[in-house]
């Protein structure tokens, strides 16, 4: 991204937006403004803040912390630039009611673009996601075969001091489901962290830091939507292909829900209902695996293309 022959100033955005991006004399920054804006103030100065209204930014608004800028009252604070409460950039735009996705000023994440490692991990991850999908689908049916035993022995299991028989294994391959799921899951989280760093470094605004976005997969309750939001942040808001992220997350939630409902289905209904729930869950997990491969491809290719365009 370095260019020693270009003087500092505003230029057409090399990352493909309709705005202008500021070049500081050695590298492109994250600062943008509407094309043709009057003035040539450097980012971070008072005049720059006035020359770059929030509507000129190409980034979508995102939900931020509830707290307004320090010393202000929510709904009464005037719109303006303030220190980023998420510490992902130097300044973030407060629109008068909430924090937006518009950021300005240098950030330690600017130079964190490492699409080569992201792409290298993606090559290994894509075939393994299918393996994990098959393993999770098999696990659904294995759990269905064990559900009747758990329902029949539930009182004995919860009664202190009562010895129960060993539950059925669920099949000769059931022991491989958990280690395969953990192995692929860890590799996916490594890729997700790399992708989040690359997306931020490539100029895409994020609602959460790469580390928090990755850890959100294992944080109860918020893991129902934070990972999905973080994945959406890795692709430009106007990219029509983002629907594959929606499909992936919907299938993943459906498969997870079915997995949780297998034993209740056996307890409330019968073995037939349990097998139906397991079948729907298995199909959802397979669909989620295929969609996850498409998500990995979409995000990685997006970051590679943006990096090349900025180079």
Question: What does this molecule look like?
Answer:
By secondary structure, the protein is mostly helical. The protein has two domains: 9-104, no CATH class; 115-310, no CATH class. The protein is 50% helix and 9% strand. The strands form two sheets. The chain has a three-stranded antiparallel beta sheet, with no helix packed on it. Helix 2 packs antiparallel against helix 4 (177-201), helix 2 packs antiparallel against helix 8 and helix 7 runs antiparallel to helix 8 (271-310). The chain is elongated, with a radius of gyration of 24 Å. 37% of the residues are buried. The model is unreliable at 46-66 and 108-112 (pLDDT under 50).
Strand % is 5-15%
Class based on secondary structure composition and strand pairing: mainly alpha
> How many distinct domains?
2
Calculate the terminal CA-CA distance, rounded to whole Å. Answer: 5 Å
The dominant shape is elongated
Largest sheet: 3 strands, antiparallel
* Helical content class: 40-55%
Tell me the total number of β-strands. Answer: 6
| Rg computed from alpha carbons, rounded to a whole number of angstroms | 24 Å
Strand order of the largest sheet: 1-2-3
Low-pLDDT residue spans: 46-66, 108-112
Mean pLDDT: 79
Write the H/E string, N to C: EEEHEEEHHHHHHH
Number of helices: 8
